[in-house]
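Sample A.
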Amino acid sequence: MVVSAIVSSFKVKRIFVDSGKAVEVSSWNAYRKIRLKEQALSKASPFYGFANHPNEVKGSITLSFILGDDKHTTTEYVQFHVIDHLMAYNAIFGRPTMRMKNMVIATFCMKIKFLKKTGVGFL
């Protein structure tokens, strides 16, 4: 499922929510559009893609993100691995974010539910 979120005070579109990924990934292009400096990245080890080839990781950084619509929002901090690789999406939310927010994807309804302090939020 593809969603939008506010990441580090910028609206980021085309975020893929993937229950099969073990890490959160951001594309280098999206990282540059957020106007963060490369020096802010921490060193990170490469990870392996679908074809079992290593993807070079520029680094990792912890950023805030806001999920939800006007009524149902939640804010969290997530560690993104920034890669300089052609991607169809600006970012990928994987299992760590899904577990952190107790997200459930209902593809037949085209909705994502997540827990927030005052109830349940929807995307």
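Sample B, a different protein:
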Amino acid sequence: MRKRIEKFGSVLALSLTVSVMPVAAITGTPAFAKQPAAAASLGNLASFQTIVADTLAAVNKGDLKAARTRIKDLETAWDKAETTLKPKNKATWTYIDTAIDEALAALRQPNPQATDAAVALSKLDATLKEYSI
């Protein structure tokens, strides 16, 4: 039984590595960040959600140039708010920051793909909603 578990563990580890590796290779960031143990709100994140929605709308229209421009607004606003938001809950802030980094990376690739950007932005939108009041 133990050999079966060890073999299964090896196959599982290999499977996870193979399934995660492409995302990390593409975005330059881990495919997932450690989610905070308990949902801890950082307050009203609506302004960030608006920027993400605008960026996703541009991606869905196929206007990746506009999406790259708009996501820069998110990066700037998030960085500006760091000193206020991060002290509220460092783990939650880091989790959202990682999702932002993934969206930025998806749009800043030399040849960005709309589908990859849409997935990253949708994940980011869901994350912001989860940790907003």
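Observation for Sample B: Residues 7-27 have pLDDT under 50 and may be disordered.
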